[in-house]
Design a protein that fits this description.
By secondary structure, the protein is an alpha+beta fold. It has one domain. The protein has two helices and nine strands. The N and C termini lie far apart (132 Å).
């Protein structure tokens, strides 16, 4: 019987089948992990973007209150007069806060319980026509932001300088 001297070393069909099965399991685990990580990232990014909107609204309101010469209640919002002669208008609607100052910014923020006050006395809703009168002046703004399942209270206060208050009532100085 002649022996085959040119025998080729190779894998058996069983070894190839097992390696293909292991490769399919690893690919399946990788694909599933990728989907889970992708969904987690999108959820994180969406929540982060929503929080960035809340932070931006808070930052703008704080800055505008600090720089304001006079803040007046306009019924559905605020009129903020600054020293550099620019007016900033805020409109507070149920699902949005709109800021108008040259550029219009719209923030999708759900809010409730909008209250304005001057020297601790709550203001009644004013009309657009008398936002320059002293009866519309405010020094406090408060509302509640509804974010996901949380109610976040927001409170802003303007500390008027003595010059502002003297301009408000010139008869106060003898």
């Amino acid at each position: 019987m002649p022996t085959n001297k040119h025998r080729v070393k190779a894998f058996t069909i069983m070894e190839v089948t097992i390696s293909m099965l292991i490769a399919a399991i690893v690919i399946g685990i990788t694909y599933t992990s990728y989907n889970i990580i992708g969904k987690s990232y999108l959820s994180f990014k969406t929540r982060n973007d929503d929080i960035a909107v809340l932070n931006r609204v808070d930052e703008l309101l704080k800055r505008d209150f600090e720089q304001a010469n006079m803040i007046a209640d306009s019924g559905n919002g605020l009129l903020i007069n600054k020293d550099n002669m620019t007016d900033v208008h805020y409109e507070f609607n149920r699902g949005t806060i709109i800021r108008k100052s040259g550029v219009i910014d719209t923030f999708k923020v759900s809010m409730t319980d909008l209250k304005t006050a001057f020297e601790g006395n709550l203001n009644n809703n004013q009309t657009e026509a008398n936002t320059t009168s002293e009866s519309a002046r405010i020094d406090e703004l408060s509302f509640t932001i509804n974010f996901k399942d949380l109610n976040i209270p927001c409170h802003y206060q303007k500390m008027y300088s003595s010059l502002n208050l003297i301009q408000r009532n010139p008869d106060a100085v003898n």
